[in-house]
Amino acid sequence: MLYKVPLLLSPQLEGGFTVTSPLLPELVTEGNTVEEALINVRDALAAVIEAYEDLGRSLPANMKIIDADNSLWLETLITAP
């Protein structure tokens, strides 16, 4: 399944980033770099999905991308010089 999850990457004073999601408050992870933090999101999301299933809770409907075989959703932030 393909999911669309808004993420907030917060730089930490000691270095690295903490990642949270306003849509899934249970999703919390971190990494020393942006790339590492985003890689860790996959495991954190899997844990949240498993917890929701164990509790009989549904994920927010707007997170699921139904036609994952024929479409790709991508949002990114880009800074211009």
UniProtKB/TrEMBL annotation:
Native organism: Hassallia byssoidea VB512170
InterPro entries hit by this protein: TTHA1013/TTHA0281-like
Protein name: Type II toxin-antitoxin system HicB family antitoxin
Domain of life: Bacteria
